[in-house]
Amino acid sequence: MPGLDVKPLLEELKDRISEELDYELEAMSQQMFADAYAGDPDIYVPSVVMATGQVLVSEWMDGTPLSRIIAEGSKEQRDRAGIMLVRFLFSGPSRAGLLHADPHPGNFRLLGDGRLGVLDFGAVDRLPGGLPRFFGRLLRIMHDDDADIEEVERELRAHGFLRDGIHVDLDALHAFLAPLAEPSKVDSFKFTREWMREEASRVTDMRAGNISRQFNVPPSYVLIHRVSTAPGAPWRSGGQPVIYSSPSGTSRPMARRCAACSLRITCMTALISARCVNACGKLPRCRPEHGSISSP
User: Fold this and answer.
1) Which domain holds residue 120?
2) Is there a domain that residue 144 lies in?
3) Which run of H or of E encompasses 124?
4) Residues with Cβ < 8 Å from 11, sequence gap 6 or more?
């Protein structure tokens, strides 16, 4: 992996593992999610009862483990759970200023009233400005039939995904990124088993000629990368395609305004949530370099 700078990644992972052992920090994160999703018709986060350096106690939450829904649930149950999971993961930064970064099935329950219950807030990414605007800019460029791939390269270099001295073929770069932008380009996209298998194989191909070997993962994007690549895996194991439809019903639902403050919200946030948050900027390990996902 000539493009990967490993040492900063190891330092980042070490810091995050230490955070996962801090129950008081986890309690703060959990309560921020609980407050942000209070009254939500689809998502439930139990409130924190007590937290010390040795123990964390929260409200009891019963329900059917998501792993059982994946293995034994009907197609309708899997589809609904999958959509709620993705909406929760990607709406967290805009609603709570946090990204839940441990999206394996053991951390989720399907409640009796149909909501998705969420557990375990030890691994979170603090994104007080929402998801990075960088992603929205890349998608908007790649959605263009005549995409400016030189601008894409500049964006990737500016955010550390291509390091100095690493050369990439622009045609190969376009060919690599174009399929990844397909789902967000249309109103409804079916994540078939064949499509996901092909994409997983393509982007993880480590042969010398594959452009993926040239990419770096900046430390501040490690948990975002983990979450953005994880949600499809459980549903592949269920063997059923997942269909994503935007709630706006528009042909290219790339932007809408927050119902609370009229902030224009773009990209994934626009597809998921009509709310935004004003960050206090006092959370530990904030990511000021991410900026905000809202359009200028």
Assistant:
1) 19-130+243-290
2) no
3) strand 124-126
4) 219
Contact indicator for 57, 49 with CB cutoff of 8 Å? yes
Closest CA to 293 of 153, 87, 92: 92
Predicted confidence at residue 15, as pLDDT, reads 80
Which H or E run contains 171?
helix 170-185
Count other Cβ atoms within 10 Å, centred on residue 196. Answer: 16
Q: Identify whether 7 is part of a domain.
A: no
pLDDT in tens, 18-75: 777 888 999 999 999 999 999 999 999 999 999 998 899 999 999 999 999 999 999 8
Q: Determine the length of the chain.
A: 296
Q: Residue written as tokens 């018709």?
A: 41
Residue 135 lies in a domain: no
**How high is the pLDDT of residue 208?**
60
Give the three-class secondary structure for 156: helix
Question: What's the pLDDT score for residue 231?
Answer: 52
- On whether the pTM is more than 0.85, the answer is no
Inside any domain, residue 270: yes
Looking at the structure of the chain, the number of domains it has is: 1
Residue type, 3: G
